[in-house]
Specification:
With 193 residues, this protein is α/β, with parallel strands linked by helices. The protein has one domain: Rossmann fold (3-Layer(aba) Sandwich), CATH 3.40.50.1010. Helix content is 52%, strand content 10%. It has helices spanning 13-20, 46-55, 59-67, 75-83, 88-103, 112-129, 134-150, 159-171; strands at residues 42-44, 71-74, 107-108, 154-156, 178-182, 190-192. The radius of gyration is 22 Å and the shape is globular. The N and C termini lie far apart (74 Å).
């Protein structure tokens, strides 16, 4: 004899109803320990990594963020770093950072929507500020979009370019936090903003 009645969940009725709504019991929710606040992360621009590789400038900031699992690298920055290598040693330095951040899942990769938004932001720039060559600005726009999506501040020496992209992002309802650094003699860097 087959039972044609639908099987009932082993969960109590209220738990079954909650599960159907996408709710979870307290024990199933991630603990506060696993919650990551992106505001505590640092998204690094090439303008920080290049002096880090060349002269250990910003060493304390970069290594502290990497050791805490708080360093993020936009994929366009990775491309810029590899394009700038001139020796095996240079490539080895970039490989080391690439492997470490890849293992930690800290490489920010643009989606198709990010690429489309980059084109739209450059078109908006042309309408409001005048002609630019898109290929000269594509990486900066993608870096700004990726940092905005992530929510952590973009750490850069390049105030002028990223301030402009921040204004354009704000006009379309997105925010970009910047942490502007300047080279100092103590190799720690100073931040403003």
């Amino acid at each position: 004899m087959t039972d044609s009645a639908p099987k009932r969940s082993s969960l109590p009725r209220s738990a079954s109803a909650n599960a159907a709504r996408g709710w979870t019991r307290m024990a199933e929710r991630p603990s506060r320990k696993s919650y990551r606040d992106p505001a505590l992360d640092l998204v690094f621009d090439a303008s920080v990594f290049i002096p880090y590789f060349v002269s250990a400038t910003y060493r304390e900031m970069v290594e502290d963020a990497m050791n805490r699992g708080r360093a993020y690298l936009p994929a366009p920055v990775l491309e810029e770093l590899y394009a700038g290598t001139r020796s095996r040693t240079d490539k080895g330095d970039v490989d080391r950072i690439h492997r470490r951040l890849k293992v930690q899942d800290r490489i920010l990769v643009p989606t198709a929507e990010d690429w489309a938004n980059a084109g739209l932001l450059m078109a908006r720039h042309i309408r409001h500020y005048g002609q630019i060559n898109p290929k000269d600005h594509l990486n900066d726009v993608l870096i700004a979009i990726l940092a905005s999506n992530h929510g952590g501040p973009l750490v850069t020496e390049n105030r002028e370019h990223f301030e402009r992209w921040r204004r354009l992002l704000r006009a379309v309802g997105k925010s970009l936090r910047l942490q502007i650094v300047k080279r100092s003699t103590n190799h720690h860097g100073t931040s403003t903003n």
